[in-house]
Amino acid sequence: MVTVVGVRFKKAGKIYYFDPDIIEVKSNDFVIVETARGIEFGHVVLGPRDIHKEEIVAPLKKVLRIAEDEDFNTHRENRNKAKEAMTTCQKKIKEHGLDMRLVDVEFTFDNNKVIFYFTADGRVDFRDLVKDLAAIFKTRIELRQIGVRDEAKMIGGIGSCGKQVCCTQFLGEFNPVSIKMAKEQSLSLNPTKISGLCGRLMCCLKYEHEAYEELLTKIPQIGAIVKTEKGKGTVIDSYTLLERVKVKVKLEDGTDDIIQFQIDDVEATGEVDLRYVKGNDDNHHHGSEDLENLDD
What we know:
The protein has helices spanning about 70-95, 125-135, 150-155, 165-170, 180-185, 190-195, 210-215; strands spanning about 1-10, 15-20, 30-35, 40-50, 65, 100-105, 115-120, 140-145, 225-230, 230-240, 245-250, 255-260, 265-270. The protein is α+β, with helices and mostly antiparallel strands. The longest helix is centred in the N-terminal third of the chain and has 28 residues, at about 70-95.
């Protein structure tokens, strides 16, 4: 076991582990740490805890010190410089006529590098732009192309639920989301209704996915012939979260009736009425192959 603390460098950013060494680090402290790209200012979101060595990406860097007043001032200055650099870079992009959209600018804590995040439809030849920026800022320049999900995370906005998008609030990493999740939750497959601000499938489709998968293993599929207290019938609809099915039952007098039952009150016979079975691609109990893997 190894003692570590979890540090974030951006709000809702990925959590990285560091060795607190002999420093008494507590949750919610601000610290100065050594990273692969230099010295950085971070926020401790996970207090000291013991984890298995297998969970660590070696080498484990150390916490250098608890942030002091001078460090906070440096961090604020870097953020102000980043705003100015944003304007400067946008002017240079326009001058060079580059087809790219600048999303964010970040100065490393030690001012060893300036990172410009951008999106573009394809590859961009920004060599001349880098030369101009290096001459202006007199430090190392990195232009990093990001995906649309990362762009939405950096910019933020209001989702269709009326709240701030999850990726900006608390999602440290993006999980793969597929059209199968929408199908299993019986959601509309209209792209405009299940896509987020980034244009990809909404991350929240993942939240209830495991619960739906577990429930769907218990619920008879559409077209299944089941035994009920009223007699044999065919499942014509289902309500996953309610754990109920709608069954067309053949009554003793020869007439049909449609009745809802709890899934515990019906017993599958193994038979299927093909008149009620949709194609495999549309069967919401058996989702089709993933439309796309949205893990950027």
